[in-house]
Amino acid sequence: MAHLSPSAIFSPSVARLQQAAAKDWNYIDAWLSTKFAGKNPPPYERNHDILKALLALAALNDTADEERDLIARVEARALEDLQAKEDADSHTELLHSLEDNLTKVGQTSLDTLAAMSVVLNQPVPTIERLGRGIVDLQVTAYDLEQVSERVSVLEAHLMNELDNINALIKDLQSDEYQPSSDLMKQTIDYQRRAKALSAKLPEQRDRMGSTATGSGPSKITIQDVKLEEDKFKAMMETVKDLEAKVKSYHGLPQDVDLARLELEGLRLELRGLTLQRDSMFEGLVERESPKKTRS
């Protein structure tokens, strides 16, 4: 009970939490002791957040240790199987004898073939597969060279653009682009003028509103335009009729009385011509009509 706080004596839940925390700290202390080979770890603050982080770290470390041990056991088992298979192979001594009796050139060729098989990931290589793998490697190398050249060209363009940007920055930092000495004065002047215009804005709005109200709404629609167009066409027809009547009086004197006398004379002449036409028509009819014979 020495590790419990006074409040834990009167609260079972607090006591359980403190016991669990003490158990976790004991586990962390033991784990750190194994990691530091029995030496004391550096001093650190002991609180709930650090305990939580250390527990997570210890769990991850244990998982990694288990995975590493599992991989080591699998590799050891595979090595044992390969060793047992090699010991059981009847041709092992023959292969060792051939390898020992190879010339220097043959040993170099065999090492090269083995290294090539490892690089090309071909445990059981053949000449055809090795050749195909070499061709694939050459194609890959060529593609990488092309990509490298493109990257070099792109890098050159980027460096050129970087130089241009640096030159532009240098120009912008020159005296030509520096603000004028009276910039503060101009700013204050602009602010004062803006405030004055803002103060006059409501008055101008009221004036515009009163002007719009006095003039009244003037909305022109398509129907109004059509109606005015029809009126205009009617007026044009009237003008044409009047022009025709005026042309009929062309040649008359400007004096009204004289014009009336001339008009009466023309009417008498027209009447005489009409009578002459009628008499001529009657004479023509009598001449062309057959005469009756007397019995």
TrEMBL record:
Coiled-coil stretches noted in the UniProt entry, renumbered to this chain: 225-276
A cellular component annotation (GO) from this entry: spindle
Family, as annotated: Belongs to the HAUS1 family.
Entry keyword annotation includes Kinase: no
The name this protein goes by in its record: HAUS augmin-like complex subunit 1
InterPro entries, per database record: HAUS1
Cell compartment(s), UniProt: Cytoplasm, Cytoskeleton, Spindle
The UniProt record lists the keyword tRNA processing: no
PANTHER family (alphabetical): HAUS AUGMIN-LIKE COMPLEX SUBUNIT 1
Source domain of life: Eukaryota
Entry keywords, A to Z: Cell cycle, Cell division, Coiled coil, Cytoplasm, Cytoskeleton, Microtubule, Mitosis
Main subcellular localisation: cytoplasm
Record-level GO BP terms: cell division; spindle assembly
